[in-house]
Write a structure and sequence with these properties.
387 residues; Aspartate Aminotransferase, domain 2; alpha/beta; Aspartate Aminotransferase, domain 1
Length: 387
């Protein structure tokens, strides 16, 4: 099926956010695959379109079962089906959690660098973000547990937005790390919202660990955000789920999501989810293998041709988090000039927290041809800076 990931459709002028760029530009920024969705998903949607009536939709029990079976089979985690709540996306779920599980002016902890939209969810709702930088040794990112303990001890901190696996650095947190995070949050009375949207994008042989699966404590304090959208490229269909084992958290989130009017599916959400989880596991494995090869190629290319940059190996996501400290102190300025001079469009790390100011994020979920093109553009630009 390699041609599925090589022979890509033209995404220009079809409303794709990622590809709303000039003809000479190559977008490798937003976390959006260029791969077509799995054949089973496309077939399910074609069948739904053929029906011809697109009225209000409901959530059938098969939707709950698809999530439960997938996480039990693939990740060894059994969820109670009745405690899954449909939501139109992980970002709406996180924003709802911030609004409903905290009060204005309270503080929300994030481990940085982290998905930039977390800051929007916090600030736009009148809360205060508290950054706890991850520890970086040039090769690996780890949690600074003493710093996290100190941040959580602030009585104004009531929520931790956790990213598992971590976007953008690609760390898969171990069960021991997750358990320790849960113990610290329980100690300080802090609820955890765990964004696990990237969970199924991992290099072959690696598997993520659901936050709520490692202990009774973690299960009791967690709201978990799940979706098929990132790994099967379905973001435009608006389909995700929230899970909370704790009865009170489940009831509060269910009520909050309905109050915010983000708990109703569109006409295609359920069909796409069922086809993804029930029929597309082999496709996902092939996609992960293809991205892993892209990653190996990119890492080797940077080491050989752009050695002033550092691209630590990531275990998960289809993103590269590249350290450009040797050539710039300002990733935003770097990315602006890079785009102007070469047409390569990357994410600047500044938006991901203070620890990202010299990093850029590059998306590998595209054809090898595009990956090679992007790296050659990056090479020309960096070498020009160095001369």
């Amino acid at each position: 099926m390699i041609e599925w990931f090589e022979n890509l459709p033209n995404r220009r002028r079809v409303g794709a956010v990622k590809w709303a760029v000039s003809e000479n530009e190559l977008p490798m920024w937003v976390a959006d695959m260029d791969f077509p969705a799995p054949p089973a998903v496309q077939k399910a949607l074609e069948n739904r379109v053929a029906h011809g009536v697109f009225g209000y939709s409901d959530i059938p029990p098969e939707w709950n079962a698809a999530y439960v079976n997938w996480w039990r089979r693939r990740h060894g985690f059994t969820m109670a089906p009745e405690k899954l709540v449909f939501v139109t996306g992980v970002v709406p779920a996180v924003s709802t959690a911030v609004r409903k599980l905290t009060t204005p002016a309270e503080k929300v902890v994030v481990l940085t660098p982290v998905y930039n939209i977390f800051f929007n969810s916090i600030l736009n709702n009148g809360r205060v973000p508290v950054e706890v930088p991850l520890i970086f040794d040039g090769d690996r990112w780890d949690i600074d547990f003493p710093a996290l303990d100190k941040a959580l001890s602030d009585p104004n901190v009531t929520l931790l937005i956790f990213c598992n696996p971590q976007n953008p650095v690609g760390r898969i947190w171990t069960a021991e790390e997750l358990k320790k995070v849960g113990e610290l949050c329980r100690k300080h009375g802090v609820t955890v919202v765990s964004d696990e949207i990237h969970c199924d994008i991992a290099e072959p042989g690696k598997a993520y660990v659901p936050f709520a699966s490692v202990s009774e404590t973690n299960a009791d304090i967690a709201v978990t955000c799940l979706a098929p959208t990132k790994c099967f490229n379905l973001a435009g269909l608006g389909t995700a789920a929230v899970y909370a084992d704790n009865d009170l958290l489940y009831r509060r989130m269910r009520r909050a999501l309905n109050t915010d009017e983000v708990a109703e599916p569109n006409a295609f959400s359920v069909e796409a989810t069922l086809a993804a989880f029930n029929e597309s596991e082999a496709w996902l494995d092939e996609m992960n293998a293809y991205v892993a090869e892209n990653r190996r190629f990119a890492e080797n290319y940077i080491k050989e041709h752009i050695p002033s940059l550092n691209a630590p190996h990531a275990e998960a996501t289809y993103l590269m988090w590249i350290d450009c400290a040797a050539v710039t102190a300002d990733a935003a300025a770097f990315c602006k000039e890079l785009r102007e001079q070469t047409g390569l469009f990357l994410n600047a790390g500044n938006a991901y927290g203070k620890t990202g100011e010299t990093f850029v994020r590059l998306n590998l979920a595209t054809s090898r041809k595009n990956v090679e093109d992007g790296l050659k553009r990056l090479n020309r630009f960096v070498n020009g800076i160095e001369r």
